[in-house]
Structure formats: structure tokens, C-alpha cells
Amino acid sequence: MTQYNFDEIIERRGTDCFKWDALKTFFGREDVTPMWVADMDFRSPDFVMEAIRKRCEHEVLGYTMPSKGYWQAVTSWLEKHYNIKTTKENLHFIPGIVAGISYALLCLTQPGDKVLVTTPVYPPFLNLPKESGRTLVCSPLKIVDGRFAIDFDDFVRKAKGCKLFIMSNPHNPAGTVWGAEVLQHIAEICEQHKVIVISDEIHADLTLPGHTHVSYSSVSNKGITFMAPSKTFNIAGLGSSVCYIADETLRKRFFGWLDALGVAGGNIFAFTAAEAAFAHGEDWLRQMLEYLSENVKTLEQFLTERMPKVKAVLPEASYLAWLDFSDYGYSHKELADKLLNEAKVALNDGTTFGGKDYECCFRLNLGCPKSMLLDALERIAAAIK
After folding, report:
1. Structure pTM?
2. 73-114: per-residue pLDDT in tens?
3. Residue 325 in contact with residue 312, Cβ under 8 Å?
4. Which of 37, 151, 204, 380 is deepest in the core (most CB within 10 A)?
5. Residues 6 or more apart from 147 whose CB is under 8 A from it?
């Protein structure tokens, strides 16, 4: 059995990667450790890279289509991990989940229609409805026992009159795993008010040991589920995602719209890499999740011992943590300055996940070698002491 080395430091500068090479554009300086963009600093799996190299041996890169092997790998993965028993007829290739959500907004709503989200949440969930002329409705989450929780009294009020609910499952930021009971309650409310649920499950495969992901499709067939190998196997740059819809009426409506747009023609390497990842990725994923779990424990211990005033929501899935520094007494602007210019660490600003209610909060990406994580945490602790 191959033992993978997640402690390896890989130089990513100069590869046009967003996380490292866009620092100057977004933060004004390059001499910082980037712990913002949600990809990992681990080497992409060897079996994925080998599949890409093998495909390159044939030196014609013309129009391509998903192979039987691709669909077999996808359907087998969904059934094994999430008990989604399906055929390719219920699935549709999508060149990225953000794009998929955009398509769903345009297909299923009209300008002015209300779209519900729970905040704090992944910024495109906020920006896409607003930029497409829809009316954004926000239901703030609570923090209960150190994890995000839905305020169902507020949620049911906000759901009335909405056309869509865009859900992050597991939740981004912080990887809260919702669980069957919560999802069932969401389904009951949304079906009562005729709200179509879009479930972004891109972090499902990153559910950490001790937790279990439940797909929204297991509690309701009245929604759209997006999944992808991109976060799981650190191949986000290939734009490979899949959409699952059980309900025939909704499926025909949305898939027909997608086909009219011609968005099913993914690039050769999106199909090649996804097939290899789903067919051969079990052991790599197990080892990687064990490593991430240790990084979460490292972060938790460091906060307890060195930054006890930080109120954290730690991931149950994914490699994203939500850190609230408000008890240190600094303004949001002061904190942002200290983290960037004193600690020299680039984090995601909490206000981008839902506005001023999340001042003094930041999202930290711990999908990196442990040494990099500890180095960044040491500098953060020194800056805010």
C-alpha cells in the first residue's frame, strides 16, 4: 500500500495558482502565507496525474465526451459513499459547481424572485443571486456548542415566498455536518412552501473521521444535488463536477436547459481525472482525511493553549475553520491589519460571508502541511497577543 507524504512542502508560486499567485492582487503583498482559497497544498494524487499523462500520449485533443468508465466510476462512488443508487440518466456533467448554481438560478427563477441562504456562507451564494437580479434573503445561523446551527424559527419565516434555497452541505465556512434530522426539517419546510433546494455537497467526501455526511437527496427527491472530485482530490483547476436530480420533472427542466446551453462538454482532462480519482482514490482519501483530522486537532490544541479568546467553529468536514477574534478587543480593521501585515497570513475576511455581522471573524484553510499550519498560527498568536 502506498504511503502518501502530506508533510511535503510543494512550491506553488509561479504556477498561476490563485491561492499563491494572486496574493498581490487581493492583499497588496506577496510575502504572506496564503490560508484563504479553498484548495489544498498537497500534491494531487499520483493515479490522477498518471491518468492525465497517459491520455497525453495520444496527441489529438479534440472534442470529447464522458466515457462509460467515467459514468461507472461516478455512479459507483455515489452508491458506495452516499447510498445514491442512480444511472447516468439522472446525472449531468457540470464544469464547476458555482457555474451549476448560476445555471440553476437562471433556469428556475426570474429577476426579482427571492433566493434564500443561511449566513455566514460561501460568498458566491450571496453574490450570484444579487448579480443576476434576484432578491437575496438571509437567515443567520446560530452557534450552538461550538458548531453552526440553523435557527428554524427564522428559517421558516424567511422561506415563505422564496423560489430557491441554496444550501452548503457540509456548510462552508467551517464544515458543519448537518445530519439527517436537520435536512429532513429543511425538506419539510421547503416542500411546504414550494422552495426548490440546491444542495452544494462539494465537501461531502471531506467528511472527517467520526462524522457522517448525509446527502440532501437521501431525504428529498425535490432538489438539485451538486458533487465533485475537485476539493476531494485537489483537482479544482480541472472544472469537473456532477449534478444529480431524482425528480423527473425538475430533471427534464434543468437538464434540458443545460443541454440547450451546451455546457455538458467538459474538457478531456476533467473526465480523465475524475474517472481516475473515483476509481482509485479510496486509500489516498483515507490517508488525507486522517492527516486533515490531525491538523484540526493541532489547531484546536493551539487555540486552547495560545489563543484562548478565539471562538472557533472547527470543521467536521472540509479543511476550513471559522475563527472569531472579537474578544481580543480590536476593531475589524485592526485585526485585518494585524493578521496580514504583522502575522503575514492571508485569511478570508468574515464579512465577505455575510456582511458586518461577521466582523472580527476570519476563515482559515488548514489543508496544508502541519509545519505550515503551525508556523502561521505562531505568527497569528504573536500579532494579536
Report:
1. 0.96
2. 999 999 999 999 999 999 999 999 999 999 999 999 999 999
3. no
4. 380
5. 174, 176, 313, 316
